[in-house]
C-alpha cells in the first residue's frame, strides 16, 4: 500500500497570509505513460462531504478559487493557499489514486491565527 | 448536474445490519465506478473499496471484507453498502464518491451517519 504522510498535522495562519501543506507518498504516484501524478487534494468542513480542490497534482477543480494551488511530482507534493480567507478553515487531505488501495494522508487541520 | 444522494442517518443496535443507498443522477451511471469512503469520529478518510457499475464487480480494501457488501441496481442508478453484524466501531459517516475522469472523488454523496449503540 502507498502510505501518504502530510505535514504539519495542524497549522494556524493569519488571514491574508500564505498557508502551505505538504504531502509525501511512500512510492511515486507518477504514471510514466501519460506523465500524470495521480494525486488529489480535498477540503473537508464539518457537516459537509469532502470537496475536491486539485487533481493530477496541480489542476484546479472547476469553481475552486485561484488562491488554491497544487505543486510537486513523484513523491513530494504541496498545497498552497496564497492568501488565507476565513472560509478556508477546514481539514485538508491529500489522496493518491495511482494504485489500489486508494489512500489518504492523515489530514492537516488549518485554523486562523 | 451530477448528484449523488445518500439515504438518511441510521441508529442500529450491535449485531444488526444496515443498508446505505447512493442514488446517482446527471450522468450515465454505468460509466463510472463508485467508491465507498468511511470517516469514523475524530478520524480521517478511509477508502473502503469500490464497485464497477458496469459489471457489478466489487473490490474491497483490507479491513472491509466479510461484513461489508457493495451492490447496485442499475435500473435506479443506485449503489448500496450493506454492513452486517454491526459493531460499535462501525459508527461513522459513510460516503459514496464517484471515480470520474478527474480522479477518485470528483463527486461525493452528502454522507450517511451510521450509529451503532445498545
Describe this structure in words.
The complex is a heterodimer of chains A (about 110) and B (about 120). The model of chain A has no long low-confidence stretch (mean pLDDT about 95). Chain A has strands at about 5, 10-15, 20-25, 30, 35, 40-45, 50-55, 60, 70-75, 75-80, 90-95, 105, 110. In chain A, β4 and β5 form a beta hairpin. In chain A, about 0% of the residues lie in helices and about 50% in strands. Chain A has about 110 residues and is mostly beta strands. Chain B is about 0% helix and about 55% strand. Chain B contains no helices and eleven strands. In chain B, strands 2, 4, 5, 6, 9, 10 and 11 form a seven-stranded mixed beta sheet that branches. Chain B has a four-stranded antiparallel beta sheet with strand order 1-3-8-7, with no helix packed on it. The radius of gyration of chain B is 13 Å and the shape is globular. The mean pLDDT of chain B is about 95. The interface between A and B is medium-sized, with 23 and 21 residues.
List its salient traits:
heterodimer; A: 113 residues; mainly beta; four-stranded antiparallel beta sheet; B: 118 residues; seven-stranded mixed beta sheet
Amino acid at each position: 500500500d502507498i502510505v501518504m504522510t502530510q505535514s504539519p498535522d495542524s497549522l494556524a495562519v493569519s488571514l491574508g497570509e500564505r498557508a502551505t501543506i505538504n504531502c509525501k507518498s511512500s512510492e511515486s504516484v507518477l504514471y510514466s505513460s501519460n506523465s500524470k501524478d495521480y494525486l488529489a487534494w480535498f477540503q473537508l468542513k464539518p457537516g459537509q462531504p469532502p470537496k475536491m480542490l486539485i487533481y493530477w497534482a496541480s489542476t484546479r477543480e472547476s469553481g475552486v478559487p485561484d488562491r488554491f494551488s497544487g505543486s510537486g511530482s513523484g513523491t513530494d507534493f504541496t498545497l498552497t493557499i496564497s492568501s488565507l480567507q476565513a472560509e478556508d478553515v477546514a481539514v485538508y487531505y491529500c489522496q493518491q489514486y495511482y494504485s489500489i488501495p486508494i489512500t489518504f494522508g492523515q489530514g492537516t487541520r488549518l485554523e486562523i491565527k | 448536474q451530477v448528484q449523488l444522494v445518500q439515504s438518511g442517518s441510521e441508529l442500529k443496535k450491535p449485531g444488526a445490519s444496515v443498508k446505505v443507498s447512493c442514488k446517482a443522477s446527471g450522468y450515465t451511471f454505468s460509466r463510472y465506478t463508485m467508491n465507498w469512503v468511511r470517516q469514523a469520529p475524530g478520524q480521517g478518510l478511509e477508502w473502503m473499496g469500490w464497485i464497477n457499475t458496469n459489471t457489478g464487480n466489487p473490490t474491497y480494501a483490507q479491513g472491509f471484507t466479510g461484513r461489508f457488501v457493495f451492490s447496485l441496481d442499475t435500473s435506479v442508478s443506485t449503489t448500496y453498502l450493506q454492513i452486517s453484524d454491526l459493531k460499535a466501531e462501525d459508527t461513522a459517516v459513510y460516503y459514496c464518491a464517484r471515480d470520474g475522469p478527474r480522479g477518485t472523488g470528483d463527486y461525493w454523496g452528502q454522507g450517511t451517519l451510521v450509529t451503532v449503540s445498545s
